[in-house]
Write a structure and sequence with these properties.
With about 575 residues, this protein is an alpha+beta fold. Helix content is about 65%, strand content about 10%. The chain is globular. The termini are far apart.
Length: about 575
């Protein structure tokens, strides 16, 4: 495995070219609006195949394993395509749901799954027993080769840009225009990446030297990291956990665990009798490893508190998933320490190989209908609403719109029907979330149904003015939980003005509408901060009809063209 092999260069060049042409087709489909530009399920599936299988072949092919590597990687790539189809379907209907609600998590999890699947496939293709030392070597070779190849492709592209700019500077635009064409740079960059892979895969000794160098650096950093982790645990009994939760402690602890595990696995490979440290430093390191379950317990407690307070969300599901995976490794290591003491590294290889497969499986499952965090989050939040844990007016519909993709869209449409009579303004808010900005998001009747009229028979021209004014501000419609309209004679002239009061989650705006020459003009009165200004008492008083006017103690002062209002503070 360690001997450099002559790579099937022509086949790899062909694979790179086909990959570039596939990506070109998909880009042009989106740009020029032909199939499958309006079907994200097919876009996700085809992009998955176009990225994953060629990349696995480029990194895994040798003259001796072509059939074997295809046998292992093709089914995996097809499975990723199916998962891409399901994930893309969550971005439908495309006119209402953005790709970013599903894209980032899909790309990250598929990248991890592909990375894991590739190194297991490379090992299995050799017909050898899977061991951690071999997997470690494959992982670093694949990672560094791909990074350097992408760097090579980036440098190649910069040279092309310089080429085009130089000739454009002397009045020759041919090259500049050519290099900007999609049909040119997709195949060109794919080929450059393929050549980069060929170059760096033929330099395995250099790659392995870089790996040994980083391992030597991490050998010293691991000792410092263990010292930090043990000192932190020692300080916790004196400070308590409250300051930790106030500063995002659960995520910090997960980061500490992840770093510890990464460094431990980089330093200790499948050489259980060849310690990288002296006896006492070795014991100091495994003392830090043995303490990792304490970190798992602390982070579990912190995450559980958040779920108890606010229910499940996407970020909490992901946090618990990361917690679960990070907790598996130290539990396996702890078992080895308990059994073998100084020779606990004998257990490390078995644990890493087994849990590596668990990580691979989990990365695939979270993109399937079996473990769909968006579906699970939607169900939990709707149950909290049904249990009156969350009030309808306080329900975070924007979160459903922004993060839960199709699951959120379907849930909000069902909520519109369920609360159409009891909370009509919810319909206005949800309509504003999915408006196309070409026409009013809600009809005049829907908008009027969402107003709580605290006065009888307001003028129709005023209602028309309100509808036109508010329909232009989609953001305001989304955030406004309740609208109130109340008549008041603000200037004691016998003619009614109208208070337009809009309640949002954090603040309340109050506007006075005044009739001037048969038109209604808006005068902003004040903004109340709900938590600071006792909003509940304010709204109770408003609904009870306790609204009055009071003359101002001080007249306005006018100097030239400027008017000054006197503010009094008690």
């Amino acid at each position: 495995m360690d001997k450099p092999q002559e790579l099937p260069s022509k086949l790899m060049v062909l694979i790179s070219l086909v990959q570039g042409l596939c990506l070109l087709y998909l880009h042009q489909a989106i740009e020029l609006h032909y199939w499958p530009h309006q079907q994200p399920q097919w876009l996700f599936a085809l992009y998955s195949l176009a990225f994953i299988w060629p990349t696995m072949l480029l990194l895994g092919l040798t003259p001796y394993n072509t059939k074997a590597i295809v046998k292992f990687t093709l089914p995996f790539a097809l499975l990723c395509g199916l998962l891409g189809y399901y994930t893309g379907y969550q971005a439908t209907p495309i006119e209402h749901i953005r790709f970013d609600a599903v894209l980032l998590s899909f790309v990250l999890t598929m990248a991890i799954a592909t990375f894991k699947a590739l190194m297991y496939s490379q090992q299995c293709a050799l017909g050898e027993r899977v061991s951690y030392s071999a997997l470690f070597l494959w992982s670093w070779r694949n990672f560094l080769t791909l990074c350097l190849a992408l760097l090579f492709a980036g440098c190649f592209w910069l040279i092309l840009l310089l080429w085009g700019a130089l000739f454009k500077a002397i009045g020759i635009n041919f090259f500049h225009n050519l290099f900007e064409q999609h049909w040119f740079y997709y195949p060109a960059l794919a080929l450059a990446n393929g050549f980069g892979v060929i170059i760096f895969r033929s330099q395995t000794r250099v790659i392995d030297t870089i790996t040994r160098l980083q391992q030597a650096l991490m050998k010293f950093l691991l000792v410092v990291l263990v010292l930090v982790s043990l000192l932190f645990l020692t300080a916790l009994p004196f400070t308590g956990l409250t300051p930790l939760w106030e500063s995002g402690g659960s995520s910090l602890i997960l980061c500490m665990q992840a770093l510890m595990l990464f460094f431990v696995n980089a330093v200790y490979q499948d050489e259980p009798d060849n310690w990288p440290y002296s006896k006492w430093l070795h014991r100091f390191v495994y003392l830090g490893v043995a303490a990792l379950p304490i970190y798992s317990a602390i982070s579990f407690y912190g995450l559980s508190l958040r779920v108890e307070q606010y229910g499940w969300s996407l970020s909490r599901y992901w946090a618990f998933l990361i917690w679960f995976l990070l907790a598996l490794f130290p539990l396996g290591y702890w078992w080895g320490i308990a059994k073998n003491r100084d020779h606990w590294v004998h257990q490390l290889s078995k644990v890493n190989v087994a849990i590596g497969l668990v990580v691979l499986g989990v990365m695939l499952l979270v993109n399937s209908p079996l473990v769909d965090f968006r579906k699970m989050t939607t169900a939990d939040q709707l149950q909290r609403l049904a249990d009156n844990t969350v009030a309808v007016d306080d329900f975070d519909i924007y979160y459903f719109r922004r993060h839960l993709a199709r699951q959120g869209y379907e849930a909000l449409q069902s909520l519109k029907e369920k609360y159409a009579d009891t909370h009509p303004n919810l319909t206005v808010r949800i309509n504003a979330l999915y408006a196309d900005h070409k026409q009013p998001s809600s009809t005049r009747e829907e908008f009027m149904a969402g107003i709580e009229f605290l006065t009888q028979n307001p003028p129709e021209p005023l209602l028309t003015t309100l509808y036109k004014k508010e329909s232009k501000n989609r953001w305001n419609l989304q955030k406004t939980q309740k609208n109130y309209l109340r008549a008041v004679d603000a200037n004691q002239d016998g003619r009614l003005e109208y208070l337009w009061i809009q309640r949002r989650d954090d603040w309340t705006t109050i506007t006075l509408f005044v009739e001037e020459d048969s038109n209604w003009r808006a005068l902003h009165l004040q903004t109340l901060w709900n938590r600071k200004d006792n909003a509940d008492a304010f709204y109770q008083t408003l609904e009870d009809g306790e609204v009055a006017t009071q003359p101002s103690e001080w007249n306005d002062i006018v100097i030239g063209e400027t008017r000054f209002e006197v503010w009094t503070q008690e």
